[in-house]
Protein 1
Amino acid sequence: MPDESVQPPFLVFGAPKIGEQEIAEVEACLRSGWLGTGPRVAQFERDFAAWRGVQPAQVAAVNSCTAALHVSMVAAGIEPGSEVITTPLTFCATVNAIIHAGLKPVLADVDPLTQNIDPDAIEAAITPRTRAILPVHFAGRPCAMDRIMAIARKHNLIVIEDCAHAVETEFHGQNAGTFGDFGCYSFYVTKNVVTGEGGMILGRSEAHVARARMLALHGMSKDAWHRFGDQGYKHYQVVECGFKYNMMDLQAAIGLHQLARVGENWQCRRELWQRYDAELAGLPITLPAAPEADTRHGYHLYTVMIDPARCGISRDGFLDAMNAARIGTGVHYLSVPEHPYYQQQFGWQPEQWPNAMQLGRQTVSLPLSPAMSDADVDRVVQAVRKVLSGS
Ligand SMILES: *Cc1c(COP(=O)(O)O)cnc(C)c1O
């Protein structure tokens, strides 16, 4: 008999895998006396550009993906009040960034299988005021970028890709984030590459990126490293009313080594994904759709659907039971119109986007972190089986 009084440790959802190299680099950064935006951020930008196969001048590091989305839309010069079409199955930051850029979010429902924005729904949502499309590569699965780019060309729309889940994602041999005018990445603690808080802007146009970079640091014409570095004091000029969105060297110190292991960690999550697929098959839950041919899935989230009619338990009951088994889970996401702010501000109701509503009410994300051991995966699988068997 197992000793019931000894509780297993809580399995934290999305725990990052931090190596000794990150720890040493953070220490070296602290000892260098340069904590703010400086040489480590510049190195991280060069490494990231190389990873995504673009020029260094096509990327700018910032302190979050939310900031990246916001300044991208400002830098794109989209006139205030214009409409931006995005998905209802996303984190609130996607929609909030549109609002902060002075633009109007318009939702287009997702495909129930891929959980990504449906190109037909985008077309149906276009009005004379539409200026941009903001697709989210949900869970790391690429959106249908061929169709989305065709729609954008036809209607002369800006495309900003939310790549918060998609730092490794590819569609038909091309990297996610390089199709549109901008790709915006997140290095938040639960994401595939971690800096604590952090983000990256990738832009097709170097001029757009230069403007985004300036907007991310108060609208100043020179950043601090160039003012206080070893090249002698340089005056700066404020040429726009910008924001305080710059990444610190302290953050880049973590990111440099995370990025060096991005492939290794991806491989690890792919193996976890395949184990879940094999070991959860046959249970009365819907597993994530298999990755599409000629794409590379980012394997950021492993989402299963809890249909109470099939499972004999509600989604929220399932979350509670997993928590009681000391396993952290996530919900990605309750659809955006479930939240009172958007209902009040825009009059949205979840029923208007039924696929996102249904997914959002049934979805559960199981832990999928390269920090997990085989025993951790066993625990998750056992707990899912036990909860579903009602014992
Ligand atoms: C995490 C996330 C964001 C925000 O990223 P931050 O770096 O935390 O600002 C935006 N969009 C999606 C889809 C996300 O998952």
Protein 2
Amino acid sequence: MNEAALRTLSERFANVRSRIETVARRYNRSPEEITLVAISKTHPTEILRAALDAGVTDLGENRVQEAEEKIAELGRQAARWHLVGHLQANKARRAVTLFDYIHSLDSPSLAQRLGRLCEEEGREELPVLIQIDFAGEKNKTGIDPRQLPALLKATAACKRLRLIGLMTLPPYFENADCARPFFKALRELRDQLQLQGSFGERTGELSMGMSHDFEIAIEEGATMVRVGTAIFGERNQNG
Ligand SMILES: *Cc1c(COP(=O)(O)O)cnc(C)c1O
């Protein structure tokens, strides 16, 4: 990676960080309560290494296989690793050993499987977020909020899974403000689950907001933003 590319990456990262701080302050929130997860899918390991050098602490990937290769090169401890894409049953075992956080829990059977695999793999605790699909889009993953009670029950039954929050991925809108109702709905759902004790003593994280709408997500209460393009530039493959 050449000097100029490195500089661009660290400038973009600094820019995203400062935009997060600006919105947070405007809404009387501490920027420290917002985790910036840099979504590095499709980018080669050397770019991820440069991102870590630039100060990135959290990396997000959407495919287990791709993440596994990168983690093998960079090291399991090099970052906090987040899985943000759909998790297939046959990749669950590897996901349990590779990731610090799974944002895409979306079915009772996946919860049960993850719980069992944590025991088999000696993983004491796996923090998970439930991915909510408000729009009912066929090509997207996540659970219909009406099916949430069964998933909450299955998750709570797995002692090694720790439900730490909710995640959502709204449909793409040209006008980012159109995503606001989805962010708001996720916050309201989180508040409701918090009241019923689904997150234990904790408030419950809100994983929402991407490159083009993370500021709006923060206005609506995001505590984890998943930003790819604004840090790494355009992807040339479909991520
Ligand atoms: C790719 C991806 C992102 C990041 O998208 P950008 O628009 O590049 O910021 C965030 N969340 C998920 C689930 C993704 O798959």
